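Researcher: I'm comparing several assemblies side by side, and this is the next one on my list. It has 492 residues spread over two chains. Same procedure as the others: predict the full complex and return the structure.
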Amino acid sequence: MNTSYEPPNQPPVPNPASLPLGQGPGENEPIARPTQAIEAMLRQPRRLVHQLRQGAGGKLIGQMVGLGIVCAAIYGVVVGMFSGGTQLWAAPVKLAFGMLAAGMICLPSLYIFACLAGSRARLVEVAGVVSGLVLLMTLLLIGFAPVAWVFSQSTNSVVAMGFLHLLFGVVALIFGMRFLSQGFKWMETQFNAGLKVWMIIFTLVVIQMTTALRPIVGTADTFLPKEKKFFLAHWFDQINGDGKLARALED
Amino acid sequence: MADSSPNTRHPLDQIPELLAARAETVRAWLTEPLTRRLGVQVAIIVLGAGVYGATLGLWRSPLQALFVAIKFPLILLLTTTFNALLNGMLAQLLGLQVRFMDSFRLILMSFATAALILASFSPLTLFALWNAPPLADASAAASDVYSGILLMHVLAIATAGVAANIKLLQTVKSLSGDTVRARLVLFSWLAGNLFLGSQFVWNLRPFIGAPYLPVEFFRPTAFQGNFFEAVLVALRHLFTS
């Protein structure tokens, strides 16, 4: 006698990621509060993108931008703790402004590249995806904040701390870009070469912003730099300066 | 019931359609009277290329920015107009089954696409200028920055040109149904437009403007010689010095 159990024929459960936007579980639930926006960004990014397409984009974008500013400011306080003094308020202001400005500077080109890729997404939806990118990046930076604080208490090197923050920023950027590319895929837009070029542009703008708004990690006499520089020149100057300082301390 | 016919739509609604350049949209546009979209596309070129041109000249001075904001769209419009006859003939000779004026429309659409891309790059180029030392700064570092800014503009203009021409190639391909023919038509248009466009660029120089020369709309030598003579002279200097 055959005693083996045969499960009844059930239809296969579809992968939510393969369903059209709005047909996955919970994707139609509106996002009313900022905490829901954070939860959706981390756990249900499809819900966030779907809500952006439902005509409630303006309010949701406002929430994401507000949260992004707050998160960037919190991480900025941790960055400012390395130098203390005025940097405790200057670093948060600069980081929050820098992230917002980078998003706004790059938004027009992203919209144009999306249209070139055949996207039917409206400007407000593209702005929503950029806000999501900034929110995810700043949320991840908050996750890194305790680690950054521990390191900031054990070194005096501006270059070392700058490199560490850059590393955290790059990791956050990678996740942010993943959200962006998925977001466009869900909005039925082919993520083509133009959008990849935009990723490079956004990365360069974010990095240059840290140089344009320097000092963020170290200290200076003025709030903004007196000398205009591009980030590579600034990095080389900092590395050379730090090397000279280290040699002087050894002597 | 709301009337959603194309006649009542806002002119700005044409922008995503122009950028996407879907075959059915372009075909529909080509059946309309010429004047229907001409104004919007010329306005896009004037504003889009004008805004980008302003960021090109702004490093030198606000007056230079104004001059380049006028000159940059002028190059695109003059090239399209002066080559309209030739481009129309080439299209027909190479077997593209479109009316004479349709070649003009397709090239104008392509330039409008490039102008939109350039306009979207304007915040980026402005940000780069904000980070650059003044143009009058003659230090070695500033010289590197000058090359960097120049390279950035070359890349931006090249990106806009390449993207616009890829779209134009797709459109021509969809109209002709033949990839080889579409490429031939595009390359013939490109050759003619680059040949004439380079001369207009030469006539209308300066764009960034050297800091030791006065700000002016035309250089005194604007209509002496031509772009290709200048290239030959430069090559001769390179190999004989």
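Model: For your comparison table: Residues 14-240 of chain B form one domain.
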